[in-house]
Amino acid sequence: MNLARSLAVAVLAALPFGVSARAEDAVKVTHRVLTQDKGHAVIINEKGEVEWEVPVKATSHDIARLPNGNFLLHTGDTTIVEMTPDKQVVWKHESKPTDAKRGIQIHSFQRLPNGNTMVSESGNCRIIEVDKDDKIVKEFPLTVEHPSTHSDTRQVRVLANGHYLVAHENDGAVREYDENGKVAWSYKLDMAGRPASPGHGPEGHGDHVFSAYRLPSGNTLVGGGNNNRVIEVTPEGKIVWSIEQKELPGITLAWVTELEVLPNGHIVIGNCHAGAENPQLIEVTREKQVVWTLKDMTNLGNSTVVHQLLDVSEGVIR
Asked: Which of 40, 60, 78, 241 is deepest in the core (most CB within 10 A)?
């Protein structure tokens, strides 16, 4: 990192959460990104070059670089592996259906501070935690109104208080579960004043939520999926901030997937199925200024669902 950028990062990091520096005061923003699309998991560096890649044929709905430098990769509908940078698999989990008549899909996972791994199982309608030997050490059923092997859940995150924040795609709802699996809070997405419409691209609209994150304020930031927007809601369910589908100049949001909240308050938005004319990743300030985008139809495609910025590690909510 050069001196100018080091100073800029230091200034941004010193700002309170939710406060952004003016775009004209900062050097050009670049990022090193871990993501997956077009049959591979890939690291794209600040110059847009492929720095590392490994075949991953399934469309990943979660991904992570761990503190030890290894990667948690979603290698199939039912499998997760931990892989070293030199591409050695050192741990693997495979979920199996609890009912032979139903299928199962994994859509989210998270390595926990105690070394266990949380796995959300659609089809089984449950959350499990497994240890280093892939033994289930905890499980509880989820509240699901519209069961679907493909869409019971999307992203799930374990909160600092031990609760679980679950995006229920097919229910169009975010539910927070306590450590015993009881629903402690919920939020139902609305349609933003627009009628439902079919399609995975910008033309599609619904309430199929993808992700949710608890902010330090106690509010919840929601990646709306085919709701085509990002919203922040209070514990009472009031929307206090949003980015609507066509609010960013020259950009249309389609299936809004994973979000990252950076220490300077900026938000990185996953914009999946948006077509070649739109970026796959967008970084915006709280004032809704676009400061960085990733638009790469060579190494990636129209199904870039997940990402992790690798040059910003401390204090990121994702």
From this structure: 60
